[in-house]
Amino acid sequence: MVVTEASEPVRRRRHGKQLEAALLAAGWDELVEVGYARLTMESIAVRARTSESVLYRRWANKDQFVLAAIEHYRNTHPVAVPDTGALRSDLLAQLTAMSEALAGFFAIAAAAAFSGLLADTGLTPAQVRDRAIDAQQLPHVRVIYERAHDRGEIDLDRIPAAVLTMPFDLVRHDMLMDLKPLEPARIQSIVDELFLPLVRNHLRSKR
Amino acid sequence: MVVTEASEPVRRRRHGKQLEAALLAAGWDELVEVGYARLTMESIAVRARTSESVLYRRWANKDQFVLAAIEHYRNTHPVAVPDTGALRSDLLAQLTAMSEALAGFFAIAAAAAFSGLLADTGLTPAQVRDRAIDAQQLPHVRVIYERAHDRGEIDLDRIPAAVLTMPFDLVRHDMLMDLKPLEPARIQSIVDELFLPLVRNHLRSKR
DNA sequence: CTGCTTAGAAAGTGATTCCTTTCTTGGATG
DNA sequence: CATCCAAGAAAGGAATCACTTTCTAAGCAG
């Protein structure tokens, strides 16, 4: 017959880390698109242009794989830590980044992961959140506040913890509800109408 | 043979609304216990002490049934509307009622419903929330604020909408994260450290 | 160049589960 | 009491899907 079929491009084999990353990325995309319950190992293999056996060589079962895919997405999509020189702009930037980078994706993934993963892994949504979403997020937030504290903008010791976490709780809430990035106006509202007025009570005299 | 077997109690047949309520209640319990993905029509039938055909005579498929079960739970578990005579205690009561009545149940159900139901029904979590959770909740909330407004405690027109919804957003957020009722201390913190300080800016002079 | 690991294709197994169908009989209705 | 609708039991069809097995050959290590 003919040496090469016209419609069949040469397919290179991937190996090691490169292949693994492609598998996990495909798993993530599938998770976002159809959700955990409708996600099948075959659909992932097809999307990654490989076969199921390659998946099962690396992960014992579907749940392990999905967990790994979520974790992999988090590791490869770090949220930038802004340093704009002022608490308000720092917060706006951080919340926007958090929203745009994660909303939709994390929201769906977290929601999708809940029903299926909870039953099998015994994790609570909060644990999933800790493991997949906020693991590297919280230290960053703390940094923002500490910088503001050092600049003398706020007195960290006098602000209730609920105030400090509130902006992030609300962003997370909105993401879960709408499955898409927050409107900039909403983020500004959270900062300007909710957070800053509360912090203002504890402002050190700046000038 | 013998007329009645010792271990076989007489099984009465249920009909109409009574049967339907039992089916939906069983569906709800199953949803809360194992989640949408692991819920089967057979397990529901067993729990309701009936058979699958009874289910399929009333609902076209699993998704329709689950949606109906969620709606039924909401209809049969209204949240009380407190009237304590003051905004703060009204809010505390409302948030506590909302939390205790719905947390765990709604959280799991909503989360469980997401992955499976979203794909099939095309609903977003926000729509599920509107349809199943807050449908009758929001008017109640409005009532609380309007009473406070009429008492002269607050000036509704001058308070940003974000402030008014914030306590409920946070309760919903915490429920989704922890799948259990909020600690009373957390509710108090939301009201006393977040909500009231923000409202206080717009308090009319009471005395 | 040689050999060994493993990617990738393909087929299949077994379990689950949605949904249907058939049949018997309880019990509501007149 | 007679009639009839529907409850409940039981069995099965058909599809899906997690996971396995087998085989060929790609491409890295020596």
From TrEMBL, chains A, B:
Gene Ontology MF terms in the entry: DNA-binding transcription factor activity; transcription cis-regulatory region binding
Binding region for DNA: 40-59
Domain of life: Bacteria
InterPro entries (alphabetical): Homeodomain-like_sf, HTH-type_TetR-like_transc_reg, HTH_TetR, Tet_transcr_reg_TetR-rel_C_sf, TetR_C
All copies of domain HTH tetR-type, residue ranges: 17-77
Keywords: DNA-binding, Transcription, Transcription regulation
PROSITE patterns to which the protein is assigned, alphabetical: HTH_TETR_2
Protein name per UniProt: Transcriptional regulator, TetR family
